[in-house]
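Researcher: Let's do a round of design. I'm pasting the structure tokens now; please hold your answer until I've finished.
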């Protein structure tokens, strides 16, 4: 069916409005980061700074240990992403290939667990980490991030496993390959786009996470970047807007860079999985 001209105009208008809605906060953040103090307090704000400056970035680095906090966030996010993918991949294979009641129960529990609020989980997690003596430590935070990312990673990878033709695994079994060998040599390479997408999800989730880091990390030198950003807000709730915007802009860059690097591979894998021979 051919879409009428008014319908196409309406679709493109809705898409443009959605893109503007998504881009507005980031563009305003970038604009604020480069504005001098007198423009930040102006009653008639502009999109493009009249006198752009890097003073906000210099002040942000002078006031807070942003590089050290970014390193803590990077280590926690990378470790959580790698560990979550390594654990979720074989689990997803079992859940997808074994159509038992236990597998269905696991899948249902994964879906239900995503509805749990952070506040409900923080107390038991805090008690477990306290017994393990991992409070106020980056490894303890990584453990929490892995636990939080595993359900969605398992559900996501299980869908990719189901898209892999079982005939390939049956052929490998005929050639004498066991379950582990089949998973490593046959299934895992075909799951590369899904593994990359899942790892990206786990990384971005851990990089942007704030609540768990705020509760579990008390020592300033161990705090992550989202927690350090709150230090630009004074005791009376007044934000140092320029440095805060500059630091927040820098905090968004790693996620954008990582996604820009691997988005072609993700898209290519999705298209490959969508085409049947």
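Researcher: That's everything. Go ahead.
Model: Designed sequence:
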């Amino acid at each position: 069916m051919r879409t009428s001209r008014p319908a196409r105009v309406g679709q493109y208008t809705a898409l443009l409005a959605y893109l503007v809605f998504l881009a507005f906060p980031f563009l305003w953040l970038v604009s604020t980061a480069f504005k001098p103090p007198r423009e930040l307090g102006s009653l008639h704000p502009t999109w493009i700074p009249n006198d752009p400056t890097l003073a906000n970035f210099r002040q942000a680095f002078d006031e807070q240990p942003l590089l050290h906090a970014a390193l803590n966030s990077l280590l926690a996010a990378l470790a959580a992403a790698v560990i979550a993918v390594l654990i979720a991949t074989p689990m997803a294979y079992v859940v997808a290939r074994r159509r038992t009641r236990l597998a269905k129960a696991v899948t249902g529990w994964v879906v239900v667990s995503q509805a749990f609020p952070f506040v409900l989980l923080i107390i038991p997690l805090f008690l477990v980490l306290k017994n393990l003596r991992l409070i106020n430590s980056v490894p303890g935070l990584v453990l929490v991030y892995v636990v939080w990312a595993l359900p969605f990673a398992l559900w996501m990878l299980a869908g990719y496993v189901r898209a892999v033709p079982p005939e390939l695994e049956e052929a490998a079994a005929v050639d004498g390959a066991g379950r582990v060998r089949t998973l490593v040599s046959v299934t895992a390479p075909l799951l590369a786009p899904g593994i990359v997408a899942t790892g990206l999800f786990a990384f971005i989730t851990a990089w942007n996470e704030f609540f768990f880091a705020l509760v579990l990390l008390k020592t300033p030198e161990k705090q992550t970047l989202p927690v350090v950003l709150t230090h630009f807000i004074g005791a009376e709730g007044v934000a140092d807007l320029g440095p805060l915007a500059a630091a927040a802009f820098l905090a968004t860059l790693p996620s954008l860079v990582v996604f820009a690097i691997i988005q072609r591979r993700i898209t290519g894998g999705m298209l490959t999985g969508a085409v049947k021979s």
